[in-house]
Amino acid sequence: MEMGNMIFGHSRGNYSIDRDAWSNVFFDEFIYEINADAYGCINGKCEYENDTFKLKSYDWDSECTCGLEDLIDKWWEDKVHKDDCYQMELIREKIKHGWTIDISGSIERPPQNMNFEKYSKIEDKIYKKLCKKYNLPREGCAVHCTCGLDSSFEEWVKDKNHKSDCRLIQPNFLYKPTGFNIMWYKYALRDSYINQNISLDEFREILRDCVKSYYEDKSKGVIKLIKSITLVSAVFDYDNKHNMECLGILDENNDKVIGTIYFDKEFGIEEFLKNYAIVKIERKEDK
Ligand SMILES: [Zn+2]
Ligand SMILES: [Zn+2]
């Protein structure tokens, strides 16, 4: 996980993904298809939803709205590591070498009179010494706990979850039919996690369905629009890219396309023409 995401972000999930491979598919077969940008915004709108999917850009001001974070803070309120815990010895060592650390240990400042290179060297020595003393791996040297406090927290928190409507855990992409979702950090598919272990091919399948639903949804808007005008002309065309028939609706002077209606088998052009008084339809090739 990226450090920025770990500290400030909220991209989490059961499975991580291969960013390059998934990004290529997501952008080429979905984001560009619906004219969205790298954040997942469409025409500046950063939240889109239809019956099939929901797309929501990264929430920069996200915070827990379900109370779990407060509960966690409360748990830690009256807890401290034991005196002989690695954590406490680390704090003592750092203070001895000029660090200032506040009472809860959460904010620490390196010695003011040293540059980064110098105090990093000292820090490195402290970690080396303590890891050796406690026989612990170097990985996690800033957070090791040997008094059991961290593990009792893990035990306490393991069955606690954010409520499904908590702002902190809202996915950036949701496919409604299966509940498959993606969370990302700042940009679409950066440091991303998914909730269901699906293959890239299954992902493609989902995106195809979403693109189709997006254009169907757009079409509904155009249909609403032409209901309100009496005289329309239309140009019939075939959209090879999306494999859909489409109808470009022209304005009253027949020179401006005011909207395009996309059709697939379930939402057929024949059925449509029965219900709407389009006065003139021509094929694009005829022009
Ligand atoms: Zn929450
Ligand atoms: Zn401890």
Please give a handful of descriptors for the protein shown.
8 helices; 6-stranded antiparallel sheet; 287 residues; 3 domains
Structure report:
With 287 residues, the chain is α+β, with helices and mostly antiparallel strands. The protein has three domains: 3-65 and 162-209, no CATH class; 80-157, no CATH class; 229-286, no CATH class. 36% of the residues lie in helices and 17% in strands. It contains eight helices and twelve strands. Strands 1-8-7-6-3-2 form a six-stranded antiparallel β-sheet, with helices on one face. A hairpin with a 6-residue loop joins strand 10 (244-250) and strand 11 (257-263). Helix 4 packs antiparallel against helix 5 (116-134). The protein is elongated. The model has no long low-confidence stretch (mean pLDDT 86). The structure holds zinc ion (2 copies). One zinc ion binds at residues 64-66, 68, 162, 166, 168.
